[in-house]
Amino acid sequence: MLKLYGFDVSNYFNMIKLALAHKGLDYEVVTVYPNQEPEFLAKSPMGKVPALETEDGIIVETNIILEYLDAKYPDKPLYPVDPFAQARVKELVKFMELYLELPARRCHPEAFFGGKVSDETRKEVKRALFRGMTGLNRLASFSPYVAGDQFSAADIMFLYSVDLASGVAYKLFNIDLFDGSQGAKNLMAILNELPEVQKIAADRKAANKAFVEYVTSFQK
Questions:
Q1: What is the pTM of this model?
Q2: Where is the GST N-terminal domain (predicted)?
């Protein structure tokens, strides 16, 4: 059976959970936080999550895990077969990761964990999020899904990265990142109505207290 290493508050971990649920695959969760213990480094060389243990070995990096799952279990695909359409989905996934997920992550300590970031970081992130969302609105179709009329890996990245980016934008800058993008707003609502997404959200809520305790232990 597949084993998924990570924790339920991690958005990247939840991306893989949604992919597995979408494909109807059985798997075992091994709850672990990022760490530098030798035992975990043998599985994840940088000590990051998620990591997916398969019958052939362990795979890390979310994008690669998504692509592996689609190649290994082609039913209910996450990527189109057509080369250009497939490239477009991968382009959208990478775009959201680079220009929304990663900039927003720089402000997670202040937005979600009671920390502080510098004024310069706030300015850089605010500018980056505006440019990233503007670019996504140019690139995505939202008809109704990010890449067209079929659910894809781009929707998984959208749900679990743009949602957090919008939280940062609202909490720190009082900005609605979806303002002017009804398609993005509608899609977020559609995705959050999916039963598997609601189950993942419930798991996240249940795990949040332990995660906050884990984070605050490093701030003492």
A1: 0.95
A2: 1-77
